[in-house]
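Hey team,

Filing this mostly as a record. A colleague (T.K.) asked me to run one chain through the structure pipeline before their review meeting, and I want the input and output archived in the tracker in case anyone asks later how it was produced. No errors, nothing strange. Just documentation.

Input sequence:
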Amino acid sequence: MLMKAESPSGQAQLKRANRMALIRQLRVQPGLSRVDLAEAIGLTKSTVSALVRELIDEGWLVEREVIATGDLGRRPTPLFIDPTRLLLLGAQVGIGHVRVVLTSLTGEVLSARSATYDDTREAEACIQVLTRTLLAATAECSASQTIIGIGLGLPGGVDQAQDQLVFAPHLQWHHVPFGTLLRTALRGTPLSNAPVFMQNDADVAALSETEFNPSPAADPLLLVLVGEGVGAGLVVGGRLLTGARGLAGEVGHMVLQVGGPLCSCGRRGCAEALIGNRTLLRQDHPAGSAQAATALATAGQYLGVLLQNLAAAYDPACIVLAGPAMALGDALLEPVRETLQSYAQAAGLPEPALRVSRFGDDVIAVGAAALAGYRLTQPMLG
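Output structure:
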């Protein structure tokens, strides 16, 4: 039950919180009736009915007809998130490329577009390409649809309080006011009123798993993204853990091997140097050779060690793997599973539940759309 607020501003804030509490409840339990929602949220039936009426009118919710069963009495009408009227844009900013998806509030990808940019230039070159791609995706909308938020997944640490990309190591971008620059670029366009939210790419990838088709059994959820670098996102109790400066999850620079190979950060033996894409996809050995298979198995073992360390630190209910490295399939994943299993057996503990992200190559872009939905429906974060 949310606290009461006496002032007009407090009442407006409370109403917004109650509205979004209904939305988030229906994400986890679609099909609840007004009575069910009142019991779940701790509000009166009349309050819920009034809020639901508003949310239906605005495009957040939709009612479904009840199938007749022959039972006596009027059955409660089930409510669902409306997947047709309010939409989200999500964008992955990669190294030299952007990927934009248009999604429903429930995560269905309605369209997707990609474009490239010159990654040797400043961030403004990327923002120009990103702006064009976002606007092209907007053209997919019908007159009855509205884009209510834009999310960005960026390849580096993000300080939300300062609204800036702190550092993107593979692009050498430092302290870029990325959100402000994009909002400026979108002025005077059909997207000028859509709020823009941004976060690290691994963080938004984690949100893709918890915001769209969430499972209470997967809480806490830890996602490890293996691409050019290695990052992690952790969601606990529906909240994304970002750290004091937005830099939580930079697990690619955890040292796994003392005196190991040189990392881009200048240290040796970091996870990124042992299992990042430049290691996994290097051409030192012919594809399909015994040496290549051994190198891949070793990288899988190091990834398993990293996951074991993170599991010991956070005790997640579920670990999700994502990123381009997942295309390597069981050649990488089997050594990961075997390593986790061996550690668990040695400690007499069950091994962590492990799976691959269901969003494949779109996990960051879809996760960015999930970030927009997350920020819009979490009253304390908006």
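Quick notes for T.K.: The domain at 86-205+363-377 is CATH 3.30.420.40 (Nucleotidyltransferase; domain 5). The CA atoms of residues 238 and 311 lie 18 Å apart.
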